[in-house]
Give the backbone structure.
Amino acid sequence: MGWIRRTKRSYLFFAFVLSFAGVLNASEALNVFIRDDVLADYQRFVGERDVTKITDFSGQYLRRDVVDMVIAQQALQKGGFDKAFIFTPGFVSFRESNLLEKGEQLLHFDSYWKADLENKGRLLFISEPVIQKGQYFAGIYHGIDNQKVKQLKEEQGLTQLTSVSNPKWQTDWQTLESLPLKQLYAEPDWMSQARMVSKGWVDFMLMPLMPKLDNRFVLEDVELIANEHLVVLLNDSRHFAVSRLHPEGERAFAALQKGLAILREQGRITSAYQQAGLIPDLKKYQVVNPTQELR
């Protein structure tokens, strides 16, 4: 079995300072909140390497959030944005954008679904996609003792299963609504969803595949693992969001767009997600909703 991540929630005054190039004054650095379990995996993956020069995404600790962080920083650097960042851990929702909308944080290093951003163009700059529509497949994650989901091998079995998500997450919610589920529960908090599934109160939830971690998620009292046979198409594109109200917003967005175009032309964006196993080999899985379209 591969390494299993175990970390405790931390709200300590800890900061991880990254400089893109040269020595930058830490007082000029921009604070970015990162979910603490994501930051832990990011630090383990990057180690002592220069994040802007990483091209090998085949190591451990990789997950979609970590690849997002690396790609965003590489794009900013290639686009000419030279500010340093302070990464501050905190158990914030990976869908939370209030800090950006208020101009209190420059950007999130966690990408967003296009559907979740379309009505926020007045407050947020929206980047070109890092994951194209039709590329993203989620795992069906269940509690380790849930034999019904573990043994699931075809779509018809979903009629006996329950799932949970947040109705505000349009791509996830609409996708789950399209599946022939026994019941779909609404829960706004992501960690509460994970606990519901881990305890067996709900059968499964959708999460990114984590092949470098054996598609297993462990955090505090939660332990989940993905079904080995099925994946679900989340038929939307993913984008970075930059605050329009932040003083550095316009400059950072221009650099991000320029850098993403360079990385895309070099083939490095798709390659990164493929190397990490986040764009899966569909010869190994059955897609339960291959033709699903969002409303």
